[in-house]
Amino acid sequence: xxxxxxxxxxxxxxxxxxxxxxxxxxxxxxxxxxxxxxxxxxxxxxxxxxxxxxxxxxxxxxxxxxxxxxxxxxxxxxxxxxxxxxxxxxxxxxxxxxxxxxxxxxxxxxxxxxxxxxxxxxxxxxxxxxxxxxxxxxxxxxxxxxxxxxxxxxxxxxxxxxxxxxxxxxxxxxxxxxxxxxxxxxxxxxxxxxxxxxxxxxxxxxxxxxxxxxxxxxxxxxxxxxxxxxxxxxxxxxxxxxxxxxxxxxxxxxxxxxxxxxxxxxxxxxxxxxxxxxxxxxxxxxxxxxxxx
Length: 293
What we know:
Largest sheet: 7 strands, mixed
Shape: globular
Oligomer: single chain
């Protein structure tokens, strides 16, 4: 088992929370895939200035890895992605009192190149993914017990409800998002724009695939003379995904429900849905997605 520590810039961490906690981590470094296996832990730390001007270091994410995938070509945060098993993963609030500078400086790392008392900011030491020792893993696990969960991870509605609302139109999205635990204005505006754009994208893809399911090649038009396929966001809109063609597939309701029920993720390496370590299902037909080998 090889657990790792990664650095997440403060701005990117905040963007992830605003648009729906993704429970995944991306990198341009192949080491993200090379260093971890399914079941390993990825700890993410970030840093920001405290009120007194000092650098604060915060443990903000713990992912129990359930899948490793490639992103779409040219993805802005890098080619490599690991996905957390959501019920077994956590986001933590970055409060001033949760400053983990002392803890991170105490880590030894498998390379035996600890940060120690260096005067350089911790973030400068963590640009390269660091592999943890067993003692490091134990120290982080114990410290995480003292941290508070990040409340913004639970603000988005359930994804199938959100997808249905986006298809139904802006008023339905507004109703769904009118909850006591309100989203940031920026996130609401983004979802409202998705609701306005979605009918065009849905129509374009239904015409492209002529009502056929990309996964099973089921042709509802030929069988029933009706379109019954759904549009599915590969990375959920509620988890920060874009409402764009390269993040959407056309699938039948059965495949759609199976993906949501199992939390399946998509791998652009071979254009497959990953349902588990031993189960991958490639798209049967594809005209619009590009692989990233």
